[in-house]
Amino acid sequence: MTRIIAGRAGSIVIEVPDAGTRPTSDRVRESLFGALESADALRGAAVLDLYAGSGALGLEAVSRGAASADLVEKAPKAAAVVTRNAAKVARAVSRDAAIRVHRESVDFFLRGASGPFDLVFIDPPYDVSEAELATTLGLLVPALDEGATIVIERASRSPEPALPDGLAPTRSKKYGDTTLWWATTA
């Protein structure tokens, strides 16, 4: 069972797609959002959740005070789940947070994205190659606000993501089989 951990939509159970996604564990999300709240990176943020899966990361950000979330998911069944989850969270936060679901590929979305985004979650499927991730990161840079935070979730066995010009690594943290790589606009 996956749930929104805290904030206005805290404890709401959200759906997870039947196949093709691996939701971020509650433990990893708790640690991630604790760090984001400590850095005051959520209040009023424009959030982008790439490879959204269930939408848990972007929706958690909205529950905790982000102004908007764009959730990008290409898989039709997963996008339908994200849409239902977004509607639940939107009802719970009952404020003017804009939640938009985009059913298209991440790279297609980024080619037309206007931004600027303050906080970006990137949790690609494990089979997305390092070269594909590097392309996505290159497309992301023009859509970022100054001082934006980017969090990339990968398998711990994956190498450190190759960051394009415009992004600088800030830290990484391993949680068993998962590693979070943090970056900011340079």
Oligomeric state, counting identical vs distinct chains: single chain
| 3D shape | globular
Mean pLDDT: 92
Order of helices and strands: EEHEHEHEHEHEEE
Q: How many strand segments?
A: 9
Low-confidence stretches: none
State the strand order across the main sheet.
Answer: 5-4-3-6-7-9-8
User: Major β-sheet, in short?
Assistant: 7 strands, mixed
Describe the structure.
The chain has five helices and nine strands. By secondary structure, it is α/β, with parallel strands linked by helices. The chain is globular, with a radius of gyration of 15 Å.
Supply database-style keywords.
about 190 residues, alpha/beta, seven-stranded mixed sheet, two-stranded antiparallel ribbon
Topology:
Elements (H helix, E strand, L loop, with lengths): L1 E2 L9 E2 L11 H13 L7 E5 L5 H8 L4 E5 L3 H18 L4 E5 L3 H7 L4 E6 L7 H11 L3 E12 L11 E9 L2 E8 L1
Parallel strand pairs: 3-4, 3-6, 4-5, 6-7
Antiparallel strand pairs: 1-2, 7-9, 8-9
Compact overview of the structure:
With 186 residues, the chain is of the alpha/beta class.
